[in-house]
Amino acid sequence: MTQAPITVLIADDQDLVRTGFAMVVDAADDMRVVATAADGAEAVALTARHRPDVVLMDIRMPRTDGITATRAILATAHPPKIVALTTYDSDDYATRILNAGAHGYLLKDATAEGLTAAIRTVHQGGSVLAPSTTRRLVAQTGTARTEPAPAAPTLATLTARERAVFDLIVAGASNTEIAQRLHLAEVTVKTHVGRVLAKLGVRDRVNIVVWAYRNGAVLTGEP
């Protein structure tokens, strides 16, 4: 049985950008564009109409900006995953749209492969952050290191299985990948993810990654 393609809505106020992203998405065998929007208000309306799996959301748009549109979309009964796509490599924008509930934050200079991989990752329950944003988190907090850091007190509240799930989330694994790595049912992984979120006091998987960097729970792998 053929799996249904991942449906995508693209919101951007520049026609050429929408067209370019649409060509990239439609070129992938496992996804298709169902609608495009020229501003945040239109994105909200078209999301309600087409119910896409993933929305690629620009941040600076006329009428309704991407942050406001993200909040409105995620407040609906069956919200899609949202990936912010912006020209502006800004910590302020990243923080604001992630706090609004976006599942990822990428720059528009991402490669075609990087964009489609990000869509698949968030669709499967993962999260994505622009490499430059991640590097600044490291630089600003000074917490990523090449040797294990003293665990933040909150990490001690995680069980061994929850800590394993936490580590794989930070590494960018989706629920499906975590299930395969830990030999668990995917529904069990979802339960563990929920417990990790509750114990860390964060809203979603992206904020687990941010929390990990801010609390010294990430290894860079090299100096």
Structure write-up:
The chain has 223 residues and is α/β, with parallel strands linked by helices. The chain has two domains: 6-123, Rossmann fold (3-Layer(aba) Sandwich), CATH 3.40.50.2300; 142-214, Arc Repressor Mutant, subunit A. 49% of the residues lie in helices and 13% in strands. It contains ten helices and six strands. The chain has helices at residues 15-27, 40-50, 66-74, 91-99, 112-123, 131-141, 160-170, 175-182, 186-200, 205-214; strands at residues 6-11, 31-37, 54-57, 81-86, 104-107, 128-129. A six-stranded parallel sheet has the order 2-1-3-4-5-6, with helices on both faces. Strand 3, helix 3 and strand 4 (81-86) form a beta-alpha-beta unit. Helix 2 packs parallel to helix 3 and helix 8 packs across helix 9. The radius of gyration is 18 Å and the shape is globular. Mean pLDDT is 84; it is low at 141-150 and 219-223. One of its GO terms (biological process) is regulation of DNA-templated transcription. One of its GO terms (molecular function) is DNA binding. It comes from Micromonospora yangpuensis. This is Two component transcriptional regulator, LuxR family. The modification 4-aspartylphosphate is found at residue 58.
